[in-house]
Design goal:
about 210 residues; mainly alpha; two-stranded antiparallel ribbon; 9 helices; 2 strands; about 80% helix; globular
């Protein structure tokens, strides 16, 4: 019963629309900060949040029954890239130029490989939308390389935020850490048979990020 309630069209639409509004609002705020400060971390963080907004908007389309192979492939690609963009923002806070350049190279290669996997497996992506939610089996290479993009990015995000917290002892840093972990994990929830909680995790994650950034 709980699953049916959480995956009803009305519930999915309500959750995704509210999450989209919150994500869009935070994207605008962070972009405005970048325009004032011209800070490189803010540039990447705003890019990541805009990508998050795009994926949630696509979830709204999915909830209305609007989807195609291209939309599904773009969703899977952008979900991975948004975590990477947030990580690139955090990497600007790392003092070592060698470490930054190493991650730039790694991110470029894994992104290109993921794109190649999506193109090569486009015929087998099929329909991962079930009962208005993102739920289905992702082709092996796409799932593998998505993980290769997102897991290192999530580790970087948490490590840099944790280091900043130890310096500043700020509750907002803890909120950013929590938000990043939740948002990063949200995309994998439907793979492990918890599709309904994808939308709840996104909602909770953006609330945590709002508190952390504002």
């Amino acid at each position: 019963m709980a699953f049916e309630i959480l995956t009803s069209q009305a519930a999915v639409l309500a959750t995704t629309i509210v999450t989209f509004i919150l994500t869009l609002g935070l994207s605008i705020v962070i972009t405005q900060r970048y325009m004032r400060r011209r800070s490189r971390p803010l540039l990447f963080w705003s890019a990541g949040l805009w990508m998050f907004a795009i994926t949630v908007f696509e979830e709204i389309l999915f909830a209305y029954g609007i989807y195609s192979t291209f939309l599904i492939a773009s969703y899977l690609f952008i979900v991975a890239l948004l975590v990477e963009a947030l990580a690139l923002g955090s990497m600007q806070l790392v003092e070592s130029r060698r470490i930054r350049l190493t991650y730039y190279g790694f991110a470029t290669i894994t992104t290109l490989v993921l794109l190649a996997a999506l193109v090569s497996e486009s015929g087998s992506i099929g329909n991962i939308i079930t009962e208005y939610v993102v739920y289905g089996n992702i082709p092996l290479l796409t799932a593998l390389f998505s993980t290769l993009v997102t897991v290192p990015a999530a580790v970087i995000l948490v490590a840099v935020a944790a280091k900043s917290y130890l310096k500043r002892k700020s509750s907002k840093m803890l909120s950013i850490i929590a938000g990043v972990i939740i948002v990063s994990a949200a995309g994998t929830l439907y793979i492990v048979q918890y599709p309904a909680f994808l939308y709840i995790a996104e909602f909770v994650g953006i609330l945590a990020l709002w508190y952390g950034f504002i």
